[in-house]
Write a structure and sequence with these properties.
The protein is of the alpha+beta class. It has helices spanning 6-17, 25-38, 46-50, 53-58, 75-85, 91-106, 161-166; strands at residues 109-110, 122-127, 133-137, 143-145, 156-158.
Length: 175
């Protein structure tokens, strides 16, 4: 795929234009996921496949800790402005930006020092192989399981709210 059909891209830009400065991360996520799901066939190859958009399309966002998103109010106009600047030929940057945005919304970040670089912020996932919680450094990408063992090779899935609550990373009343 060399470009998106112009009508599909303009449709997404119109949807994003409807987001305002008071929109929530959940509204941003719903806008993106609605567009992805409505255009799944069109987005099944190229950079969209490379960035794993199939997992975004298939995920159950209602089970994820969206209300604990690291996205802040000033990120919403930035998101809108970036999307409105791109055109239908900008496949790679669109895929990268949307992937990063979705992960920012659905992946919990916790204060936990990285064993590699010392930065005190890690993203929380679930190991698809072991079921353990997995922590990935937000700066250097180092990843370890909740038991402190370095991750050598694993596929990490989005950690759902119930798993995060059970691990004590979210309180049930805040979820």
């Amino acid at each position: 795929m060399r470009k998106l059909p112009k009508s599909i891209w303009i449709d997404f830009q119109r949807s994003v234009s409807g987001l305002n400065d008071k929109s929530s991360p959940r509204e941003v996520l719903e806008t993106v996921l609605n567009w992805l799901r409505n255009n799944e066939e069109m987005l099944s190859d190229g950079p969209f496949a490379a960035y794993g958009f199939g997992r975004f399309i298939a995920m159950d966002e209602h089970k994820l800790p969206v209300q604990h998103s690291s996205m802040i109010p000033s990120d919403i106009p930035h998101f809108r402005d970036i999307i409105l600047r791109y055109n239908e030929y900008d496949l790679e940057p669109i895929a990268r930006f949307l992937s990063d945005t979705i992960e920012e919304i659905v992946v919990l970040q916790v204060a936990r020092p990285c064993q590699n670089c010392g930065f005190n912020s890690m993203k929380v996932y679930t190991s698809s192989f072991t079921g353990l919680l997995a922590f990935e450094c937000s700066v250097c990408g180092y990843a370890e399981y909740s038991n402190g063992v370095k991750i050598q090779s694993d596929r990490l899935d989005f950690a759902d709210t119930l798993t995060l609550e059970a691990a004590g990373l979210l309180s049930a009343s805040n979820a």
